[in-house]
Amino acid sequence: xxxxxxxxxxxxxxxxxxxxxxxxxxxxxxxxxxxxxxxxxxxxxxxxxxxxxxxxxxxxxxxxxxxxxxxxxxxxxxxxxxxxxxxxxxxxxxxxxxxxxxxxxxxxxxxxxxxxxxxxxxxxxxxxxxxxxxxxxxxxxxxxxxxxxxxxxxxxxxxxxxxxxxxxxxxxxxxxxxxxxxxxxxxxxxxxxxxxxxxxxxxxxxxxxxxxxxxxxxxxxxxxxxxxxxxxxxxxxxxxxxxxxxxxxxxxxxxxxxxxxxxxxxxxxxxxxxxxxxxxxxxxxxxxxxxxxxxxxxxxxxxxxxxxxxxxxxxxxxxxxxxxxxxxxxxxxxxxxxxxxxxxxxxxxxxxxxxxxxxxxxxxxxxxxxxxxxxxxxxxxxxxxxxxxxxxxxxxxxxxxxxxxxxxxxxxxxxxxxxxxxxxxxxxxxxxxxxxxxxxxxxxxxxxxxxxxxxxxxxxxxxxxxxxxxxxxxxxxxxxxxxxxxxxxxxxxxxxxxxxxxxxxxxxxxxxxxxxxxxxxxxxxxxxxxxxxxxxxxxxxxxxxxxxxxxxxxxxxxxxxxxxxxxxxxxxxxxxxxxxxxxxxxxxxxxxxxxxxxxxxxxxxxxxxxxxxxxxxxxxxxxxxxxxxxxxxxxxxxxxxxxxxxxxxxxxxxxxxxxxxxxxxxxxxxxxxxxxxxxxxxxxxxxxxxxxxxxxxxxxxxxxxxxxxxxxxxxxxxxxxxxxxxxxxxxxxxxxxxxxxxxxx
Length: 745
Known about the structure:
Elements: E1 8-11, H1 19-23, H2 26-32, E2 36-39, E3 43-45, E4 55-61, H3 67-80, E5 84-89, E6 93-95, H4 103-111, E7 130-135, E8 146-148, E9 151-154, E10 157-160, H5 170-173, E11 179-183, E12 192-193, E13 196-201, H6 207-219, E14 224-227, H7 236-246, E15 251-254, E16 272-273, H8 276-284, H9 292-299, H10 304-317, H11 321-328, H12 337-346, H13 359-372, H14 377-387, H15 393-417, H16 438-451, E17 456-457, H17 468-477, H18 481-494, H19 500-513, H20 518-532, H21 543-558, H22 560-590, E18 594-598, H23 619-630, H24 642-657, E19 664-665, E20 668-669, E21 676-680, E22 684-689, H25 692-698, E23 705-707, E24 713-715, E25 721-722, E26 726-728, H26 729-732, E27 738-743
Parallel strand pairs: 1-2, 1-18, 2-5, 5-14, 7-11, 14-15, 15-16, 17-18
Antiparallel strand pairs: 3-4, 6-13, 8-9, 9-10, 12-13, 19-21, 20-23, 21-22, 22-27, 23-26, 24-25, 24-27
Helix pairs in contact: 10-12, 10-15, 11-12, 11-15, 12-13, 12-14, 13-14, 15-20, 17-19, 17-22, 19-20, 20-21, 21-22, 22-24, 23-24
């Protein structure tokens, strides 16, 4: 890495907000104080892709984003504004939803193993023709197949007729080429991204494939590279070593989800992660542990460990059954190998191991699997013996499998079933860890500064389950659990839902995101219910239940009494939520690491899970508000969110003007000390309020004081100055619930 990386701002570049539109933001981003633009993937993606993670052509910039000329204009705009460029790359998979859009995939379907691209994709050639799971359930689906020229057409999807020599009846053609069209419910004949059959796994472990799929990206000579989903790769460490050699000066980040206490493999030549670990530490600071007992009673006796285990077992044996069976075929000598492999994956406590590193996780999984499934003891022992050998193909592929089981089983299933307190159900988090004490946060921050000071920190991403501001407001519920329990009972009685777990999720979402447009809440709840797969699912939607569910949502808007109650409760907790939002943002931007701001979150943002969090951002409004602030306006903490823009811009500008180095806690002494977190970054002290509802109940700061080093300190937010060593917190935080105190030089 050539230079110390600078704070980033994430833009979801997409066809309706392309590279030229992004270029027009360069001056605003510079004024905000960021140092680098961090983009979504820019290579040619599936037609109309709103995210870019389904790359179809690695040789060119996405024409729907403006193509290479637009990228050149963006880079020139960034250079003029003094900004760098961080790009998101997708080495694990390619988009195959529209086969003809991906030249390499199209050629493999035409020529099979004779294709020069046959080695690009992780295809199970031992199974014969490539299975493409696209057909509808109805046996009559084959009647929709037709031959048009040299292509097989099904529901507007085109597939090549091998070598141009096909023909005959469609029923024969679909089963005679190098591929076979099968039911969408069946697993494909290739490794994929999780359970998404339209994203086919790439073999970037092959140097030729690496070179072919990375040449265009490396030509851009970007300041930073963010690697998507490294856990899906056959050998992440070797891949990252090759990438580092090809881009020695780049700031290199991996989208690695670390479980609490887990660390990146020391052998990886990277600068850090994309920051989910930091997200959990920061957000936990603002969650009151005293609310855990009451909120647990609302959820019943079920434990997260059991929900996660059952969800992972289910996923391993259904959505990921094709991957499980491919593994089992590598152990034909082991009876019940498929069951044992699924069980071990379900008991894996982290996303994956990186043998020889992480062998202890396999040992722990074997113990837990034996406890839960004593009937599988022999099979578990037999496969576990092979899974510890880094050279064994079974072990290699099992490491790719466990990450998928974790992601689909926990993030996309258990997080929608276990709804005790959904603010904790976040990527890289642990719903069992109810709050983070200031002492624990300080320890983690000191380790971050020592071991990975160039790792990214974040609060919101395109993958988070809900935005930072929704989580901030939800955190207030943990401070007033009895009042929330009573409110939940009223709302549930006014609009009952047959699925109690989903009802918990719905009403917490309402509390955290209200006012939210009706159609957005409908879309979110339908996605959440289908992900949970309890009362309905993606594969088998229960239309009757979903109609009932949507009727409950409508009642929140149409029943005047319920709507009024919702509005009143939300109004009562929103100021405390704003306090938490400002506190989270200040801490994340000032703590060790390189802070990222997700598009639009410099103002309040009540986004929910993707695609809700990819909605258009009103940058004109943000420009205007920033100009007013720069003209001297000190915005109040209110609906506009301008106070958050003030905090964001002032911390980012402070980081640009002086180095934030070192880390040491700053003492807060007095009766309300537990309600503050403060730390020094080398002459810059960040101070934030935590647990604001209980602070208000106790009557404020009282005699609580902040202990500052001798000298003159100026709040970068308000311009106020102090020279006393013991400053009353009521003075420091008189204007805002946060402060950024800068020592005179």
